[in-house]
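Per your request, structure below.
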């Protein structure tokens, strides 16, 4: 009887354990047999769109510039602040930003590097050897579902990949489904929904490896929540098993 009870107890405990295959990313076995260990997935250069927020920074090392800051830097507009939203320019509905000295400057449909080169060339009439940096301010992704810290996250680079994005949210939780992560993307007025498998190496060549600003990542829960070995309520199980044995012995004794 004791052997049967112990066997049942061990079955209950280990049937509830979470396997590594449910929580590990990029496993060796892939559904795509043609994939090796080296991948090519070119990043799409992000193009400026209407209502984007742009940070424009101009530097010049000429002492003749009266507006130059002590660091040798000229900020075109806004206040001298570490909060980029206070010194950014919003692209209007016509695709323009309004810069000091230059006035209306068309930027929509261009990369930030292209805009920086064009502005830099125009400013040569006003500054000696200017250097221009243009970057996005309001690029963001939203992460919801089974992650440590769901929310909306901003990033300053042109691109961010899905693992970097999940890192911002504190990673997928123990009970999040890594095999069917939902990506919701709006493009040209159309809303698209797709799923990616983060346990498979094919994610590296997926169109969703690099995210677009405005993408929503939804991590679904696993079909059933199972106990990990550290979450098994041993005291409850042992108490129930002991009670059952006492009842069984009492019945047999009578």
């Amino acid at each position: 009887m004791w052997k049967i009870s112990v066997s049942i107890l061990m079955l209950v405990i280990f049937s509830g354990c979470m396997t590594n295959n449910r929580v590990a990313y990029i496993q060796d076995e892939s559904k795509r047999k043609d994939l090796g260990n080296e991948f090519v997935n070119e990043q799409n250069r992000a193009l400026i769109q209407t209502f984007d927020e742009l940070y424009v920074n101009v530097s010049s090392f000429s002492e003749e510039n009266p507006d130059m800051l002590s660091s040798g830097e000229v900020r075109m507009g806004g206040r001298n602040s570490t909060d980029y939203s206070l010194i950014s320019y919003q692209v209007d509905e016509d695709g323009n930003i309004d810069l000091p000295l230059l006035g209306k400057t068309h930027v929509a449909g261009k990369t930030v590097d292209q805009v920086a080169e064009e502005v830099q060339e125009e400013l040569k009439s006003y500054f000696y050897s200017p250097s221009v940096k243009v970057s996005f301010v309001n690029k963001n992704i939203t992460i919801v579902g089974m992650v440590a810290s769901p929310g909306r996250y901003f990033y300053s680079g042109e691109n961010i990949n899905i693992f970097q994005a999940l890192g911002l949210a504190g990673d997928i939780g123990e009970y999040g489904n890594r095999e069917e992560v939902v990506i919701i993307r709006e493009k040209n007025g159309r809303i698209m929904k797709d799923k990616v498998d983060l346990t498979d190496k094919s994610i590296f060549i997926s169109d969703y490896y690099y995210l677009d600003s405005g993408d929503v990542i939804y991590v679904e829960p696993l079909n059933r929540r199972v106990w990990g070995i550290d979450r098994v309520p041993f005291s409850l199980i042992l108490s129930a098993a002991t009670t059952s044995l006492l009842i069984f012995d009492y019945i047999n004794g009578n």
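The chain has a mean pLDDT of 76.

Regards,
D.
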